[in-house]
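Changelog-adjacent note: as of this version, every example in the card shows the full chain rather than a window. The one below runs 290 residues end to end.
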Amino acid sequence: MMLWKLFLLGFVFLAQETPVPLLHPVSPMPSFSVVSVRPSKPDEDGTHSATNTDSYHAERTTMKDVLAYAFGMGYDQELDGGPSWMRNERFDINGKLDAEEAVAIKTMSRDDREEKMRLMVQSLLKDRFHLTYHFEAREMPVYRLQIAKGGFKCPRDTASPPAIPDTSKPRFRWSAAPAPPPPPPGWHEPSPTEHKRMMASLHMHTKGWPWWLIATSLSHQPELNGKPVIDDTGLEGPYECDLQWSQEGSEGMNQYFFQAIQDQMGLKMTPSRGPVEVLVVDSIDHPSEN
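Full-length structure tokens:
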């Protein structure tokens, strides 16, 4: 249940020590052999995205989320431009490799395989949504995740089994983050009242988590307003942290996020400025027919 709560907050991206460049196209660009794009049914709830060795699959996804995956974005401020429907209309998207490509991609490393799949989604966006874009380097507000005065308070955790199969830090943000468990039967999107109640008492216990995954979860809290986070801690390896907090605006009695991470973990988010690469959408159309 707690992991599902965390992913309701969008914990699907990976923190980095420095702002990382977005994934640029290559020549020649790889592409799926079969692609299907359909508007999502309006009466369905929830979103789901996944990649296998031979396919890409996304249900009820927005173009904002597809762009984030295709170009390796980690934060909202790395995307600019585009029409409003790009952020609120939802689609079901499937891309499949041919048999020869599927065999070849299985021999690649995790990160090389992930890069190729993302590039194929870029091709899909260009072919079916007629996406045009450009990159810009901008100086903008960021947060720096740092160790607070008094030192880091989470003990190293070398005894627990790993929380995810591959604990090595991936090249691309979100590529090795654990998927949320499937919702239980009868699950539905929480109402505003239910969501407020959930945000009143949040808990993160990082038993068996590598540091980069802990930083991931901290770096995408709503209180940060989508600003990029630069990890200055220098920490590596697994740590067991226990954090309890309440989201601002809820009716919770726990500490709010910034104070909670300082008092309970010995960390702080320091406002700063830094260079960030931004994808600027020049134009994007509704998808062409299958």
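Structural remarks: Residues 84 and 249 are 26 Å apart (CA to CA).
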